[in-house]
Every structure is written in C-alpha cells, then in structure tokens.
C-alpha cells in the first residue's frame, strides 16, 4: 500500500513533464533565414518570393533577411520590396555579419522590412544612382531618376516609422552610416551582435504586416536556413555581372579557338559559355559592346592567320576588353549599386581579360605552329638505315630507325648488316631500296 502514493506521484510527474514540454514546443516559434549576399539579381527576387511562401505555408514566425551586398539590379530590388510589403509573415532585415555592408539596393530592402537591425561595424547607404564608366564612376543628379528613387525610399521609411530625412539623404547626398549612427538617427530599430541576440530582443514586438498586426514569437526560436533551388542557385551565380561578363569573354575566346583549331570542342564550350552569360544578363546586353567584341574576335582570327602577332592582335584584345566592360548596360534606371563595386568590377574584367587572352592565344599559337610544321614523313625519303635481320623479298621485317622499331620490306629482300635507303611508305611499312656498295 505504501508504494501506491509513490506510483501515483510518478505518473502525475510524467504527465506534467510531457504537458510542459508540449507547451514549450508549441510556444517556441520558427524563423527562416534568407541570405542576400553578393550582387542582388533576379535569382534573389525569385527565391525570396518562394521563401516567403514557404514561411506562410509552414507556419514560420518570421523571415530574417541577412544582408551583405554592394547592391544590384533595381528591378529585382523593387520586386523584393513588393514581396515584403505583401507578406503575411513578418520580415526582419539584419545587416550581418559584423564588418559587412548593405549598400545601395541593400539599403532600399532594409528600409522595406518590418524590423531593421544591424550588427556591429556594419554600414548602409551609398544609394545615389551612379553613371558607370571604366575611367571613373560618377554620381548623377538627374531629377527624374532621383525623384523616382526618393519616392521609394521615403515611402518605405515612413511606413515603418523611420527617419525619412536621413533615408532621403542616402540618395541625394550618397550618405553612409554605421550601425551606431543608424540606430541613433532612427533608420533602424535594433543593434545586435548575433542572430540569437536579435531574436531574443525583438520577441513580443508587434509589427504591421499585410494581414494586420502580428506579434513576433522569436525567443528561443528554431532557426532554419533557406536553401536556394538548383535553378535559382545557377541563375544567382551567372547573374553576377562580373561572372556573366567573364563567361561572355571566355565564350568569345573559345569560339576563336574553335574556328582556329576545329575538332577540339572550342565551338561547344564557346556556345555554352555565351548562352550562360546571356541567361545571367537576362538577354539584356549593350549592342554597341557586342559589335566591338565581334570586331575584336575578327581581328584576332585574322592575326592568327598571319605568321606573327602584331597590331591586329593587340587591337582585338583591346576591343574585347572594352566590349566586356560595357556588355551589361549599367544604366541608373536598372542598377542600384555602389561606386566601389564598379571600380572592383573594372579592375577584375581588365585583369581577367589579359589572363584569359594570354592563355587562349598561347594554346592557339602552339596548335597553329604544329599545323604549319613540315610533315615528318616527307623528310624520311632518302634516309639510310641498316637492317638488323634477314627477310625474303617483299616480306615485312622489323628494323631500327632513329631509335624506334619500324616495319620495313624490300623487293630484293633484307640482309642483316646491309644498308638500305627509304624510298617510300605503304601505310606503317617503310619501303626500302638496296644500296649497291662499291667493291
């Protein structure tokens, strides 16, 4: 009888533990992390739309946009902003990791999120539209373009109660601020060293989404990283302007190689590289640049048909380089990206063009040198050799010629130690003629 109270106590303890565990599990939220790194492209906008749909269907408490970007496509950025505005799931913008930036298009996206936060030593801003030039990019002050961008930035800042004046200065004055200044001046709500700290800090905060007010349930939340679909991953890589421009260059040089040395697969490689580049560019290319690159390719092909390498070859490489720098139309209406990125892009393309051109030209020139070399077989006629064995007339035997073992025959037969002259070749068999020795 004494054991009965103990048994009842244990049963109630187990039931209480299971109930408490289920309540904790039910109360803990789920957070989906979507990383925006590198140049913002159409792949990011497509993937974000999918991520927000996944978060809605699977009951996530929030989606965290981890921003680390120099900016990117303005069309893609506006699509991402629209997706955030229409999302029933709260979206938290977080510039992370420490020391990174969310320049230009990244700042536009941060202003559109329901909660904006930055890690230590991060920077936002540099939103003034840029006129790209390899000789030096310059901010532009076209009121038509500026007013359109200011309207987007100011609307998002106002909708989330942020400092409109500073948000507008990101565009009109190309202002940059770090995390401390952004927080002090009211363009972000929180500063957090890690994602865990941020999620614990914003727990219980009420935000206004497309379906109304939603209270954030993020403390101790289960964090899941969104994985890009294979299609989006490929497009994300080739959509980077540097990658797509290099792919176009490689494609051009591969086609030159294929035309100069058919049968080695250069045509296939060139076509594939150019197609990937066009997909990455969204088939939006600068026609003048395309003409320049075609002219450069023609000059290189012409130069390779001549004995040396001179003015036509160097002119072709210069045209290909300039064409690659402008092949993507970096107009301010289509790209919101920092001047620093433009400078890095220019250096990368110029350096890569020189390296790629050097590699392909070395390969092509070596192939052409081999093709222009006189036939080896034609120089065998008249050479003298000594038979190493006996053989009847017109019967094939093995002899040593230039240190190699060859098949050979003679109409009068072969005698060991006797000298013969090569007079012809029948497939792999050398035709020999007996040399009459003076008595």
Structure characterization notes:
With 439 residues, the chain is of the alpha/beta class. The protein folds into 3 domains: 24-232, Alpha-Beta Complex (2-enoyl-CoA Hydratase, Chain A, domain 1); 240-372; 378-434, Nucleic acid-binding proteins (OB fold (Dihydrolipoamide Acetyltransferase, E2P), Beta Barrel). The chain has 14 helices and 20 strands. Helix 2 packs antiparallel against helix 9, helix 10 packs parallel to helix 12 and helix 10 (241-260) packs parallel to helix 14 (339-372). It is elongated and about 110 Å long. 38% of the residues are buried. Residues 16-27 have low confidence and may be disordered.
What value does the Rg take, in angstroms?
36 Å
Main beta-sheet strand count, sense and barrel state = 6 strands, parallel
Q: Write down the overall geometry.
A: elongated
Give the terminus-to-terminus CA distance: 134 Å
The largest sheet has its strands arranged as: 11-6-4-2-1-14
Q: Which range does the strand content fall in?
A: 15-25%
CATH topology of the largest domain: 2-enoyl-CoA Hydratase, Chain A, domain 1
Q: Helicity, in percent?
A: 40-55%
Helix and strand content put the structural class at alpha/beta
Q: Which CATH top level class of the largest domain fits?
A: Alpha Beta
Supply the number of structural domains: 3
The CATH architecture term of the largest domain is: Alpha-Beta Complex
CATH homologous group name of the largest domain: 2-enoyl-CoA Hydratase, Chain A, domain 1
> Which residue ranges are poorly predicted, with pLDDT under 50 across at least 5 consecutive positions?
16-27
**What is the count of DSSP helices, taking H or I runs of 4+ residues?**
14
Query: What's the total count of β strands?
Result: 20
Mean pLDDT: 84
């Amino acid at each position: 009888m004494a054991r009965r109270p103990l048994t009842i106590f244990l049963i109630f303890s187990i039931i209480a533990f299971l109930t408490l565990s289920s309540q904790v599990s039910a109360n803990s939220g789920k957070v989906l992390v979507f990383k925006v790194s590198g140049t913002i492209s159409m792949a990011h906008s497509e993937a974000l739309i999918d991520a927000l749909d996944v978060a809605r269907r699977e009951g996530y408490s929030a989606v965290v946009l981890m921003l680390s970007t120099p900016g990117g496509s303005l069309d893609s950025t506006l699509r991402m902003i629209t997706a955030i505005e229409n999302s029933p799931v709260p979206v938290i913008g977080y510039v992370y990791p420490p020391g990174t930036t969310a320049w230009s298009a990244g700042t536009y996206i941060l202003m559109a999120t329901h909660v904006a936060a930055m890690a230590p030593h991060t920077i936002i801003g540099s939103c003034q539209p840029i006129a790209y030039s390899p000789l030096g990019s310059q901010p532009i002050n076209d009121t038509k373009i500026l007013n359109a961008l200011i309207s987007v930035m100011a609307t998002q800042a106002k909708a989330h109660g942020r400092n409109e004046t500073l948000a507008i200065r990101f565009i009109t004055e190309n202002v940059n601020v770090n995390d401390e200044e952004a927080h002090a001046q009211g363009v972000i709500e929180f500063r957090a060293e890690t994602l865990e700290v941020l999620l614990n800090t914003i727990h219980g905060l009420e935000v206004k989404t497309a379906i109304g007010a939603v209270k954030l349930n993020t403390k101790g939340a289960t964090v899941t990283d969104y994985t890009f679909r294979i299609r989006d991953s490929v497009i994300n890589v080739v959509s980077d302007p540097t990658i797509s421009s290099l792919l176009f260059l490689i494609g051009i040089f591969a086609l030159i190689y294929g035309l100069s040395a058919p049968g080695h697969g250069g045509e296939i490689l060139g076509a594939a590289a150019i197609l990937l580049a066009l997909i990455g560019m969204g088939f939006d290319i600068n026609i003048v640049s395309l003409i320049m690159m075609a002219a450069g390719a023609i000059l290189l092909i012409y130069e390779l048909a001549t004995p040396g390498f001179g003015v036509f070859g160097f002119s072709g490489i210069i045209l290909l380089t300039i064409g690659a720098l402008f092949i993507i139309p970096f107009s301010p209406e289509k790209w919101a990206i920092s001047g620093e990125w433009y400078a890095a892009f220019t250096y990368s393309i110029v350096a890569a063009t020189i390296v790629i051109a050097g590699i392909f030209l070395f390969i092509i020139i070596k192939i052409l040198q081999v093709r222009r070399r006189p036939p080896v077989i034609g120089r065998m006629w008249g050479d003298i050799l000594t038979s190493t064995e006996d053989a009847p007339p017109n019967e094939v035997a093995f002899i040593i010629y230039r240190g190699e073992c060859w098949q050979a025959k003679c109409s009068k037969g072969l005698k060991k130690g006797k000298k013969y002259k090569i007079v012809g070749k029948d497939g792999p068999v050398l035709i020999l003629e007996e040399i009459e020795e003076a008595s």
